[in-house]
Amino acid sequence: MFRVIILFVLLGVSFYIVRLVLSNRKVQRHLRKSEGKGARKRNQKNNMLRCIYCDLHIPEKEAIKHGDNVFCSLKHASQHQQEKM
Ligand SMILES: [Zn+2]
């Protein structure tokens, strides 16, 4: 009976370790992904981007991206498009 208990404990511990390693790998993969985007984008919460139309700096979250171009508003994005044509 004692052996069975030890077996169960070992199973539980190894299961726990496997889960720990797997979640650790996920975190590492996530970190590697964000590192791949470059140091500039590492601090995404406070990252400021510049509107190429009016030079206004806006948080990345609020920026409107159109290809490689960044705009502060949809209005500037469409105005930029019209001027290109
Ligand atoms: Zn703008």
List its salient traits:
85 residues; alpha+beta; two-stranded antiparallel sheet; two-stranded antiparallel ribbon; 2 helices; binds zinc ion
At a glance:
This protein has 2 helices and 4 strands, in the order H-E-E-E-E-H.
Widest β-sheet, arrangement of strands: 1-2
The stretches of 5 or more residues where confidence is low (pLDDT under 50) are: none
Based on CA atoms alone, the radius of gyration comes out at 25 Å
Termini separation comes to 82 Å
Number of domains: 2
C-alpha geometry: rod-shaped
> What is the mean pLDDT?
84
Number of helices: 2
Give the bound compounds.
Answer: zinc ion
> What is the percent of helical residues?
40-55%
What is the tally of beta strands?
4
Which oligomeric form is depicted?
single chain
Describe the biggest sheet? 2 strands, antiparallel
